[in-house]
């Protein structure tokens, strides 16, 4: 494909994903047909089927797009637990703050009784890769002797939970919930300081 055709295909893909997300929210996953999604996206059914032959493939794309980390290959270098966790925490906060993230969770929660596979896809293709990145970093800090983390899975859960419990989950249940950029910085900083106080190898208290 030429650069032009690649750009057009990417634009159409974006329109399809956007239309599908909206219709999944409005009609439910089951009732939102691929033909209706193509109509709402302003593309032909042939164009949609070429990129997404099934509705499941389209939902996979929504998940992957929502969780795509611009620094996907970057795991912080070891040696400074505070700096590394700050980087990971800020990235996580940015992911959770994306406009479509709350919608994605609403789709999964609403369809869980009838389509549990959507939740499995969401976890496997969405949060799990980022969770594993944090866990990998914590293992590296432990192996380097700079952090005392015997259960990296639990530590990663604690860290991401401190961030999401304030920045994200209230958005699903509290009307009008919003946080300022300054609050985001504070939430991530507090989570980092808590982790350092708990897991720093030397056990030094955070000032």
Automatic annotation (TrEMBL):
This is AcrR family transcriptional regulator. GO terms for molecular function: DNA-binding transcription factor activity; transcription cis-regulatory region binding. PANTHER family: HTH-TYPE TRANSCRIPTIONAL DUAL REGULATOR CECR, HTH-TYPE TRANSCRIPTIONAL REGULATOR RUTR. GO terms for biological process: negative regulation of DNA-templated transcription. PROSITE patterns: HTH_TETR_2. The keyword Transcription applies. The keyword rRNA processing does not apply. Keywords: DNA-binding, Transcription, Transcription regulation. Residues 33-52 bind DNA.
């Amino acid at each position: 494909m030429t650069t032009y055709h690649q750009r057009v295909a990417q634009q159409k893909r974006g329109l399809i994903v956007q239309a599908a997300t909206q219709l999944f929210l409005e009609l439910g996953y089951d009732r939102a047909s691929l033909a209706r999604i193509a109509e709402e996206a302003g593309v032909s059914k042939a164009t949609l089927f070429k990129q997404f032959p099934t509705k499941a493939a389209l939902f996979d794309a929504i998940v992957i797009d929502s969780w795509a980390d611009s620094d996907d290959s970057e795991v912080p270098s070891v040696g400074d637990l505070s700096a590394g966790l700050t980087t990971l925490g800020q990235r996580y906060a940015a992911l959770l703050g994306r406009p479509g993230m709350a919608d994605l969770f609403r789709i999964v929660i609403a369809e869980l009784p009838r389509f549990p596979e959507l939740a499995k896809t969401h976890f496997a293709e969405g949060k799990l890769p980022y969770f594993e990145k944090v866990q990998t970093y914590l293992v590296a800090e432990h192996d380097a002797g700079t952090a005392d983390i015997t259960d990296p899975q639990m530590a990663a859960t604690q860290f991401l939970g401190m961030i999401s419990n304030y920045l994200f989950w209230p958005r699903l249940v509290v009307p009008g919930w919003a946080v300022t950029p300054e609050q985001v910085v504070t939430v991530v900083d507090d989570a980092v300081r808590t982790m350092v106080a708990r897991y720093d190898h030397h056990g030094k208290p955070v000032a």
